[in-house]
């Protein structure tokens, strides 16, 4: 008898694990229950649709019927799972105000995360928006189309906030960015983040750091900040963070980790061996520290889908930890980070050394060479790489990719200096800036 596999939630986690399972199991009965209207879509592409860079909305969406047909499975959208009955191995979901109950052999949870929307005095839903789903994107686009806003406030300087600043600025809106930290993008250490702050201001973005949103007035168009400053904005984007959707797991008695995500083992099993979980709702293990972490990125979700499908097919592989490689563009600047930064190492009581330098994207004598800022943190005794960030106008992405590979391979700064990277004056220097960074770090260690 073929197994019945129910997957709660779609998008990067649920839709991917459904596709992965079908590739290795042609007979399983697979049912995907998605509470929103789209089972699979490119959520990382939404800011670029709102900017006008992506003009065809449908390019972001994998149609439900096409997805179901390609992978020979059943999809139910607008299906809100309300309960897991572990003893009966069944789930209850509501669709069109009707309750349904279905049984499973294997249950996979991919409920994702929800944007944090604080209860702020004067907040008006008509002109204040999160950006997490296609429905959110459509509401923002509809507001811009029908109301022709001239100004926007973006609350939060993380990935979504920075991408939306660029997107709305490109639509012609005057933008203010408010962040409670001393600089945008907490993932980046202060010495590196200063380049981001400066670039935003050069592009005409009004930046408020070490500040927060206190209240709204005037129908949500006047914002009072914690500093008592007041700014005007026709619309507001709330991008202050996300929280894992764990209510279903908690109600079912599954263990929740210390970071607030669903606790899973190295095979993505919850504390119930018949229930797996993945994506933004789970707690993962940090590759460097071995400590619990919550990392909401697309790559880990896709990898976790492969881990689950491999386990279910009888060819188990395990998750050995996440380093959290990330990249985004803000106007002309590419920002990357991988592994630990200084603050997280300090928080974990790990001793380290740091090396920072400025290089250039390729040989300075070849036209078009651009500035490149690089930082690494590493073990002060062995030189093993713990993390790094690269920021620049060209070539930052490939340097981060090398650093991510080096960290995963547990290489040292000496290894970084000895990496044989391709050279042409069009692409690099005879010694790549990463090589020079490695040599500089070796000097600090007395090597």
From TrEMBL:
Domain (FAD/NAD(P)-binding): give its ranges: 4-298
Q: Which UniProt keywords apply?
A: FAD, Flavoprotein
Pfam families the record matches: Pyr_redox_2, Pyr_redox_dim
UniProt xrefs under InterPro entries: FAD-bd_OxRdtase, FAD/NAD-bd_sf, FAD/NAD-binding_dom, FAD/NAD-linked_Rdtase_dimer_sf, Pyr_nucl-diS_OxRdtase_dimer
Does the UniProt entry include the keyword Hydrolase? Answer: no
| UniProt similarity note | Belongs to the class-III pyridine nucleotide-disulfide oxidoreductase family.
What name appears for this protein in its UniProt entry?
NADH dehydrogenase
Q: Identify the species of origin.
A: Oceanobacillus kimchii
